[in-house]
Specification:
Chains A, B, C, D: Belongs to the myo-inositol 1-phosphate synthase family. Four copies of one chain form a homotetramer. The two termini of chain A are 41 Å apart. Chain A is built from 17 helices and eleven strands. Chain A has 442 residues and is α/β, with parallel strands linked by helices. Chain A folds into two domains: 305 residues, Rossmann fold; 109 residues, Dihydrodipicolinate Reductase, domain 2, CATH 3.30.360.10. Chain A has a seven-stranded parallel sheet with strand order 3-2-1-4-5-6-11, sandwiched between helices. In chain A, 41% of the residues lie in helices and 15% in strands. In chain A, strand 9 and strand 10 form a beta hairpin. At the C-D interface, helix 1, helix 2, helix 11, strand 10 and helix 15 of C face helix 1, helix 2, helix 11, strand 10 and helix 15 of D.
C-alpha cells in the first residue's frame, strides 16, 4: 500500500481555531526547531523510532524517515482567535515559554496575525472575545471561513491545508436530531439554528474545502453522524477528540498496567489545579461538564467493570478541576488510586504530576496535523481511529467501542504505519527466536 | 498446536524453597479461595480475560477457561525453609494476612511443615538459619533435595511438580567459568566448589528430576549457560528472574508510557522503605547489589538512551532500598521522575505507592507455577521468555535483549496462549472495521 | 488562684448532641481505656506534660496530675441522635474502630441509648432523621432538652454535666438581628422563629441549666452576642467552634512555621477526600459554606497579608472537600503550598495526610469536656479563649482577633493552667542560664 | 537594657569561609536588594514584625526598626575559597540564581575575589581545592587568617567584622582531649596537631581578633570547651551550628505540632535528593556522618521518648541524603511520618518539599550576621543560644539541653530582642482581655 501514498511535496498549511497557549507554543516551537534552537521533544512523528521486522534484524528507523511526512520547514501556520494579538503578543501573555525563547523567533511570531473568529458567547461564558466575525447567520459564517481558508492557501502558495481545533471547550451538548444526518444539518443551517456550535462551523467549512479536521477539545463537533457523513461524501479525513495530556495521559498509562495484572480498583480520585485560560473556562459548570464526560469514560472502558465485576464492579471514579491562578499554565494533577490485591487486601497509589499543559499539548498538535495529512494523501477518509493515541475520547466507527489503553493505541498507530508502508505487523509472539535457539543447540 | 497440550489431570505439587512471607501468603490464599472465603485478585490466570478474534466478535473468555491449567483445588503445597515453623506459625510471624484470615484455614496451614533447607550463610549474611540439611558437599545436598522431591511426589500422590524459588536474595555473583557449560558445572560439583549458591543446588536437583523451575529472586541460578543446557538436555521448562512487584512494576508501566509519547527523561530517583525479612536481608550491601543490578536494567532497556540520545541519553537512574521496621511487609515506594517535553521544558512526576510486598507477589507465584506447568505439558522446554511479564530481569535466549515493557510482555504472554491454542494473533490494526463501515455507507 | 478551684469530686456527665462517628469513638475509647485495653493517645489532658519553673528544675508533671480534672472513671456518657441506634450499633456502622475493639466493651456501649434529637431538615439537607422530638415550637424543644439534662443528672447521680456538640454542620447563616442580644433572642423564641438552629436550642437549654457548652462544629450557635450574654448572666463557661483536626490542624502547624521564617506564600490549595456521614453532609453546598468560612480564616489571621504585604499580600487560598465513599472515615487531605524565598524564588511544599477523622477528633472532645469542667469549677465564665488550641474558628472576646497559630494557642493553654495553679509564666527568654554560666567561668 | 547597646554606625564586614552556592547567593541578593531589584524574603531581621505590649495596643514594628541593626547598604562582603573564581563566576557555576539576575549586579560580584583558603583534603575528601594557603603549620595558618581579617578591615574602612562559616561539612570528629580546654588547644597548636580542623583555624583566628563567629555547618568548630573559653576570655559572641533549612526546618515545624497534640510517632523516614556541591561532599560517608548526627538529635529532643514513652518510646528515625545531579541546587525532601492517635490507631503524613537549598540558607546567613553583630554591641559574649532559631544543632551552655522546637526558639529570639530593648515579655496568657470584657458587660 506504501506505493499509493502521495508524496508530501510543496507546503502544508496548519490552521488553528484558537491561537492561545497551545497554538502559540506549537508555532514558536516549530520556529525554534527550524532555527536549530530546540528539539521537538514529545513529538512521536519527529523523534520516535518504529521497529520493523524481527527483533534481531535491528531495523528501527525514525518514523519521519519511514513514512512520507511533511517536513517542519514546509509548514506554514495560521489561525483564528477572539483576540487580535499577534502570535508573539499572545505567547507573551500565555507565559508558557520563556520570554527569551519567544524573542529568538520574534520576527516569525509577529508575522502571524489571527483571522477574526466565529464566536458565540453562549458556548463559552467565561470569555469575552473582541475580534469576531460580523456575519449574522451560521451559513454566512461558514462561507466566511471557507473564504479564509482559500485566501490562506493562495496567499501562502500552499499545496495542502489541515485544521486542528485548539480553541476552548464549549458548553455541554448532546448529539440531537439536528446533527443526526447531513440532510438534517443542512436544514439546521438553513434555519440558522443557534444550537450549531462555532466549532462545527469551522469543521463544516473545512470539509467542504476538502481540508482534514482534527478536534482537540471535548466538543462534539465532528463526532456527530452528519459530519461523518460529510467527511465520506467529500473524501476527507477527520479525527477527534480532546488532546490527551496530563492527568488523563497518566490514567491511560497506569490503568492498563493495573488491569494487566488483574489488580482490583475500588476508587480513583483525580484532582487538578491549573491557572491558565483553559482553567478559567472550565471554572464554568457547563463547560466543565463537557470535559468531565470526556475524562470519565476512560477508566470505564479500560477496566470494564461489567466484564470484570470482581475487580472493577464497584469502581468509584471522581474528577475535579480547580482554577488556581498561582500555577498559570503549570497544571498539577494529583491522583489517589485505591487498589486491592490478593484476597482483597488494600493498597494505594498516589501520583502527583507537575506538568505543563501546553508543553504536553504542542507536540500532539504537530503530530496530529502531520499524520492526518498523511492519511489524506493515503486516501484514508472519514474517522481516523488510529490517531486515538493522542485523544482522550477517541472517535470510532459507529457502534465500535473506543480503545483507551494507550499501549493498544500505540500498537494500532504503529501497525497502521507499517500497513501503509507494506511492512509486517508486530505481534510480540517471538517463539521463533527460541525455535532457532533449540536448533542451534541441538 | 492446542491439541498437543497434555491435559492437567491429577494433582500438581508446588514446592517453594523459602516458606516466608510470600510463600505462606500464597498457600493461605489458595486455601481461603478453595474454601470460598476470598478471591484470587491479582492472578491473571484466574481472573483475566483474553480477547479472541475481532473486537466485534466479543469473545473474551477467562484465561483459565481458555487454556488447560491445573485447578486450584488440585494443588498441593510444600517447601523448604531455614526455620522449622509450620506454615501457620510462619504466616503469623510474617503478619501479612490478618490473623483471623489465617485462623480460618489454620488446619491446612499447620499441616504444611518445611523440609530442611540447603543453607550457606556466606550467601545471606543477615539471616541465621536453624533448620538446615546436614549433608557436607554440594553434590550430597543435590541428592538430598532430589530425594525430597521424589518423597513429596509419592507421599502426596502427585501427577506433576513445579518449583518456584521464594527464598532470599543471595549475595552478588557473576556468571564465571564454572557455570559456562554443563560439563564445567559437573566438575564444580565434583570438587565441591563453594561458589555454587544454594539456589543452584535446588535448581539442578529439580531439572534432574524433570521438574520445571521458576526463579523469583534476582539470584543468577538458572540464568547461567550450564543450567540452560541442562534444561534442554532434560527437556524441562525454566523461567526467571525476580518477581516484578511494587516499584519495578510501576516503573515498567510508566516508563513505556513516557517512551510512547517521546517524552524525555533526565532523572529517575526511586526509594523504598520496607520492614520485612526481605528488607533485613537487603540491608546487607552484598545482597542489595544483586537486587540493584536486577532493578537498574529495566529503564535502560525500555528507554534505550543509545537509540534515543535526545530523549534518554543523559538519564540518571538511582535506586535505594531502606530497611524501615515500622512498615513491616507494607512496602512503600516513592519515585521522582524528572521528565522534559516540547523544546526541553521540564516537568516532574512523583509516584508514591503504598503497597504490600507479599500481596503483590503471591498471585505471581501462583500464575508462574500454573503457566510453567502448562509449558511443560505443551513440550516447551528451556527458557520461557513469554513469562517475562512477571519478572524484573527476564531471562531470554542468549544474545536476545530482554523486553521490559510490561505491555509488550503482556502481548507476548497473550499471543503465546493464543498460539498454543491455535487462535489468531492480535495486532490492533483494525482497519477492517472501517473498510466494512465504508462499504456500509456507500 | 489554684486554691480557688473546686475539686473534681463526684461524677461528671458528658452529653453529646450527635452520637455518630466522633461521639461513639470517644465513648468506646474511654471505656477501653478504663478497662486497661488502650491508651488515650492524642489527649493532652491525659498524656502531655507541662513544664514548670526553669528548664534546669526538671519539673514536668502530667497535666492531669497538675490540675484537678475529673477522672476518666468518673465520666458518664450520654447524648441525643436522630437515629435510635445504641452506641454499639452506631459505632459498628461508623466503622472507625475495629469490630473486635467494640466487642470488648460491648456491654458498656449497648447500655447507652440516644435521647430523641432536636432536628430540622432545613438545616441539614442530606440527612433524614427518624428519632426526633415531637415538640412543635423551639421554646417547647428547649424545655424538653432541659428536662433531658435534669433527668440524666438525676438518674446517673451526677455531680456536674458538660455538653459537647458532636453533631453535623448546619447550613450557613450569619448572625442576624434576632441573635444580637439576649432580649432579641427571647423574642425570637416567643415567636417560634424558624431561623433558630437546632444547635442553639441545645446551647440555650444547657446554659439555662448552668451546664457549660462546647461547640465542635462550625455552626454559629454560641458565637452570637445573645448566647455570650446568657453565659455571663448564668455564670457558665462556653467555648467554640469547630474541632481542629486533619488538614486545618496541619495548616495551623505549618503556616506559623513559614511565617516564623518570613517565607512568602503565594498560593495554598487544600483538597480533602472523605467518605463518612460528615462528607455526605458537606456534599451539600449550603453546609459546605459554613465549613469553608470556618476553614478559610485560619491562614488570613496567621499570615496577615495586610501587615506583611510583600510576603502574603497576594495569597490565593482555596479549599475543596470531596465526598469519596471508598475512604470511609479515613479522611485524606492533600495540600499544595506555593512559597517563595530569598529574592522571590519559588518553592513548593506538598503535604499528604492520611488521617482518620474521628480518631483525631475523639481526644479533643475528651479534653474540651474536662477543661471546660475545670474552667467552670474555677469560676471562669463566658468565652474560654484558652481552649482555642482545639478549635478551627476560635471564639474570642468581641473585637479581639482570634489567634490561630497552634503554638501560641498551646502557650496560652499552658500558661492559663499555670496561672490557675499559681505557677510562673514561661517566656523562653532564658538569659539567666547564661548569666550563671558566666559567673561560674569567671 | 536597650540603652546599653552601642549603635550600628560605620560599615560592617561579613567574611565567609566558603564562597560557594550559599555565600554567593547572599552576596548577589544583598546587592540586588540594595539596587531595589529584589526583596529580602526569608530574612526575619528585614521583613518580620515583632509584637510589643498587648494585642490590643497594635504595636508591631519591623524588627529592623525596633533594634539597632547594621543597614544592608553598610555591609561589605568578603571571604575565602578553595577555588579562585570571583563571586560572579562562582555564582554562575552554582546556578542558584538566574543568570540575568547575576548580570544585573555583575560589577559588584566581580569585585569580590576570594582570599586563599585554609584547606586539608583529609577533612573533605570529595573536593580538590586549588586556591590554598601555603603556610605549613596550623599556627602559621592562624596568623595568616588574622592578617587577612586585619587587611580586610583596613582596606574597606570597616567599623566591625563578623565571620559566618559557609564552607563544607568536614569529616566526623568527636570533641577529644585536645579541645577540652584553651590550654590544651594551645598545646595542640604548638605541636601542629593535624586533628585541628581547618574550620577551627578560622574560628580561633576570628576570636583572637575580637570578631564574632557563626558556624553554619555541622562541624564541631566552636562547639568545644576550648573555643567557648576563648570566646569568654576575648569577650566575643559565638553561635552554631548548622543552618536549619529544608527538611530539618520542616521537621522542627511539624514535630512540635504533633507533640503539642500528644499524637504518637512510631517512625519518621526522611530522604533527600540534591545535586549541588554540598550533595557531592555528603556522598562521602565520613562527611555524611557529621551531618547525620546533627540532623538526628532534633526529633529526640522535641519528642523526648524518655519522658513520653507511650507516645515516642519506640520512635524509629532514619535519614538519608542522596546525591542526584539532575536536581542541582533544587533540593527535594520527602518525609514519611507514621503517627498514631486515639487508642493507638495509625495514620501517615507525607511531606514533599521542593525547596532550593541556597535560597533558604541565604537569609539565614544575613540574619545571623546582623544579630551576632547586635549581640556583640550589646556586650553579650559567649554562646548565643537565642540564635538557635536558625540552627539545626544549637549550641547551648554546657549541660543545658538544646531546644529544637522552632516556635520556642522563635519566642526565645523575640523575647531576647524585647529584653535587649527593655520591653515586656509576651506570655500569650491574655486573661486580662476577658477581665476587661466582663467589667464592660457588668
Amino acid at each position: 500500500m506504501g506505493n499509493n501514498v502521495r508524496n508530501a511535496s510543496g507546503k502544508l498549511g496548519i490552521l488553528m481555531p484558537g491561537l492561545g497557549a497551545v497554538a502559540t507554543t506549537v508555532i514558536a516551537g516549530v520556529a525554534s526547531i527550524n532555527k536549530g534552537l530546540a528539539q521537538p521533544i514529545g513529538s512521536v512523528s519527529q523523534l520516535s523510532r518504529i521497529r520493523l521486522g524481527k527483533r534481531t534484524e535491528d531495523r528501527n528507523p525514525l518514523i519521519k524517515d519511514f513514512v512520507p511526512l511533511a517536513k517542519l520547514e514546509d509548514i506554514v501556520f495560521g489561525g483564528w482567535d477572539v483576540y487580535a494579538d499577534n502570535v508573539y503578543e499572545a505567547a507573551s501573555v500565555a507565559k508558557v515559554l520563556e520570554q527569551s525563547q519567544l524573542d529568538s523567533v520574534r520576527d516569525v511570531l509577529e508575522g502571524i496575525k489571527p483571522m477574526k473568529a466565529v464566536f458565540d458567547r453562549d458556548f463559552v461564558k467565561n470569555l469575552d472575545g473582541t475580534h469576531i466575525k460580523s456575519e449574522s447567520t451560521r451559513r454566512e459564517l461558514v462561507e466566511a471561513v471557507r473564504q479564509d481558508i482559500r485566501d490562506f492557501k493562495k496567499n501562502n502558495d500552499l499545496d495542502r491545508i489541515v485544521i486542528v481545533w485548539c480553541g476552548s471547550t464549549e458548553k455541554y451538548m448532546e448529539s440531537g436530531d439536528a446533527f443526526s444526518s447531513l440532510a438534517k444539518l443542512e436544514e439546521a443551517f438553513d434555519r440558522n439554528d443557534q444550537q450549531i456550535p462555532p466549532s462545527m462551523v469551522y469543521c463544516y467549512a473545512a470539509l467542504k474545502e476538502g481540508v482534514p479536521y482534527v478536534n482537540g477539545a471535548p466538543n462534539l463537533t465532528c463526532d456527530v453522524p452528519a459530519i461523518v457523513e460529510l467527511a465520506h461524501e467529500e473524501g476527507v479525513a477527520i479525527a477527534g477528540k480532546d488532546f490527551k495530556t496530563g492527568q488523563t495521559l497518566m490514567k491511560t498509562i497506569v490503568a492498563p498496567g493495573l488491569h494487566a495484572r488483574a489488580l482490583g480498583v475500588e476508587g480513583w480520585f483525580s484532582t487538578n489545579i491549573l491557572g491558565n485560560r483553559d482553567g478559567l473556562v472550565l471554572d464554568n459548570p457547563d463547560n466543565f461538564k463537557t470535559k468531565e464526560v470526556s475524562k470519565l469514560s476512560v477508566l470505564e472502558e479500560i477496566l470494564n467493570g461489567e466484564k470484570n465485576p470482581e475487580l472493577y464492579g464497584d469502581l468509584y471514579h471522581k474528577i475535579r478541576i480547580n482554577y488556581y491562578p498561582p500555577h498559570g499554565d503549570n497544571k498539577e494533577s494529583w491522583d489517589n488510586i485505591d487498589i486491592f490485591g490478593w484476597l482483597g487486601y488494600k493498597m494505594q497509589i498516589k501520583i502527583n504530576f507537575l506538568c505543563r499543559d501546553s508543553i504536553l499539548a504542542a507536540p500532539i498538535v504537530l503530530d496530529l496535523a502531520l499524520f492526518i495529512d498523511l492519511a489524506q494523501r493515503a486516501d484514508m477518509h472519514g474517522v481516523q481511529e488510529w490517531l486515538s493515541f493522542y485523544l482522550k475520547a477517541p472517535q470510532t466507527a459507529r457502534g465500535l467501542p473506543a480503545e483507551h489503553d494507550i499501549f493498544k493505541q500505540l500498537m494500532k498507530l504503529q501497525n497502521t504505519l507499517r500497513h501503509i508502508m507494506g511492512e509486517d505487523m508486530i505481534t510480540h509472539l517471538g517463539l521463533d527466536y527460541y525455535q532457532e535457539l533449540i536448533e542451534t543447540i541441538q
